[in-house]
Design a protein that fits this description.
260 residues, six-stranded mixed sheet, four-stranded antiparallel sheet, 32% strand
């Protein structure tokens, strides 16, 4: 709940060079990752970022290709902010926050070519649809990075169904979903002229601007700014440098979780 007292306390702490939870300004909360959480999904992963907890599942279903990409599969990402995760989340149609979350995660995955979409072609008029479903199990800030971590890991650990005699086979000796890259994201908040990596739930209530940077080992693949505040070019340069440095540990965690 947003209160003036909480905001003043957080800003006072920042003025003394520390954050509410004792972290440095450009430090992540403890991070963890588990794959293979949902037995009936092609791939799944659960990501923990501090007290934020996100579950992602991947399902493959045959369907028609897009008219402009007849030889490629389709990728569909959705996010659900479950009421059990926060008193701020309600039951009903996807909220603007859920839609934004899904789009940011989807954009990074597409831009980094995490999935080899050309290898999802089945036959003329038929391709694999890859559905990524993101569920917020507990909210304490920074859903973007936790969701990207979970979704990417679910894809990289996913098994590839087969089609035999026009039937989808999801059991037995299956290969991996064809993937080519690992994408992670780093989300920053700007508050009282301070740049904070991985804003907590309380900090998100009072930040003026937000920037999520999705990158792989080589390049920035996507960026998304949120909220009405401004971010200076110097701050963006700092955020980019930090994103590339911090993403090393996240990629290492993904590789370890999927057994590479």
């Amino acid at each position: 709940m947003k209160t003036t007292m909480t905001g003043e306390y957080i800003k006072e702490m920042l003025g003394r060079g520390v954050r509410e939870d004792g972290r440095k300004f450009l430090e992540y909360r403890p991070m963890d990752l588990k794959v293979g959480i949902i037995p009936n999904a092609e791939g799944s992963a659960e990501a923990y970022l501090g007290n934020t907890r996100v579950l992602a599942g991947v399902k493959l279903v045959p369907g028609e290709p897009m008219p402009d990409k007849p030889l490629e599969g389709n990728l569909v990402t959705s996010a659900e902010l479950l009421p059990l995760a926060s008193e701020e989340f309600d039951i009903g149609p996807p909220s603007p926050e859920a839609v934004e979350l899904a789009r940011v995660v989807d954009r990074g995955i597409r831009a980094a070519n995490v999935v080899d979409m050309q290898k999802l072609f089945i036959e003329e008029g038929s391709v694999w649809n890859v559905f990524i479903d993101i569920y917020i199990l507990n909210y304490d800030g920074n859903l973007f990075d936790a969701s990207t971590l979970a979704a990417t890991s679910a894809l990289l650990s996913a098994r590839m169904p087969k089609i035999e005699e026009k039937k989808v086979i999801r059991e037995g000796n299956l290969g991996k979903l064809p993937t080519t890259n690992i994408i992670t994201s780093s989300t920053f908040g700007s508050m009282s002229e301070h740049v904070l990596l991985d804003p907590s739930g309380n900090e998100e209530l009072f930040i003026d601007a937000r920037l999520t940077i999705a990158n792989d080992e080589r390049s920035v693949r996507a960026m998304q700014k949120g909220l009405s505040g401004s971010i200076t070019p110097k701050e963006v340069e700092q955020m980019l440098e930090v994103a590339f440095e911090k993403s090393k540990a996240a990629r290492s965690m993904v590789r370890k979780a999927i057994g590479e």
